[in-house]
TrEMBL record:
It comes from Serratia aquatilis. Keywords: Transferase. This is 3-oxoacid CoA-transferase subunit B. PROSITE patterns: COA_TRANSF_2. Belongs to the 3-oxoacid CoA-transferase subunit B family. The keyword Protein biosynthesis does not apply. Gene3D superfamilies: Glutaconate Coenzyme A-transferase. Signal peptide: none annotated. The lineage of its organism: Bacteria, Pseudomonadati, Pseudomonadota, Gammaproteobacteria, Enterobacterales. InterPro entries: 3-oxoacid_CoA-transf_B, CoA_trans_fam_I, CoA_transf_AS, NagB/RpiA_transferase-like. The keyword Transferase applies.
Length: 221
């Protein structure tokens, strides 16, 4: 099992039957592949869908927020961008799962740009992090150069402040509890010493610190 699959499997266990969920571009889209069979969620896309589904037949006017072909479930709905962001800003999205460039111990998120590199824009990230009831960041623990992505303070431009609920990496699961970063779980065969060495933030270790469970079955939306 590679790092991204492990992360996606663990995040899948955080979703509950009936949740309205927005999955960010990239790694988060894999989460639906590992939902337990008794969990059915409704996917929301900021470009104007409720009830997003896998592609059954490509349609030129049906794409997700990343511009990729998608399907829509029976009973799903399509609407304009204004209504879509009214749903997000109105707090009607239960969970937003996003990738991250950096998260810090104040629950701040940076995930939209690296200074000096061309980016298409922030997209819906700021609204999703601010408006969703729960924000889960699914990302690899370290950057390509080996530096930690979980820091005392984000050095990249922020997407939102104090909004992250949970961070899931291939090494560990952290939650934010009463303003503190708390280490809840370790990945299989990953020692606490490894997490300490690869984490730039200060954190508490939960009294219930345990091995990370992962979804074992592939499900469907």
């Amino acid at each position: 099992m590679n790092a991204k699959e492990l992360i996606a499997r663990r995040v899948a266990l955080e979703l509950h039957d009936g949740d309205i969920v927005n999955l960010g571009i990239g790694l988060p889209t894999q989460v639906v592949n590992y939902l337990p069979t008794d969990i059915h969620i409704t996917l929301q896309s900021e470009n104007g869908f409720l009830g997003l589904a896998p592609v059954t037949e490509a349609h030129p006017n049906l794409v997700n927020a990343g511009g990729l072909p998608c399907g829509i479930l029976p009973g799903g709905a399509a609407f304009d961008s204004a209504f879509s962001f009214a749903l997000i800003r109105g707090g009607h999205v239960d969970v937003s799962v996003l990738g991250g460039l950096q998260v810090d111990q104040q629950a701040n998120l940076a995930n939209w740009m690296v200074p000096g590199k061309m980016v298409p824009g922030m997209g819906g990230a700021m609204d999703l992090v601010t408006g969703a009831r729960r924000v889960i960041i699914a990302m690899e623990h370290c950057a390509k150069d080996g530096s930690s992505k979980i820091l005392k303070h984000c050095s990249l431009p922020l997407t939102a402040k104090n909004k992250v609920s949970l961070v899931v990496t291939e090494l560990a699961v952290f939650s934010f509890e009463q303003g503190k970063l708390v280490l809840k779980e370790h990945a299989p065969d990953v020692a606490l010493e490894t997490i300490l060495a690869k984490t730039g933030a200060e954190f508490l270790v939960s009294p219930d610190f345990r091995a990370m469970p992962v979804a074992l079955e592939e499900g469907a939306v």
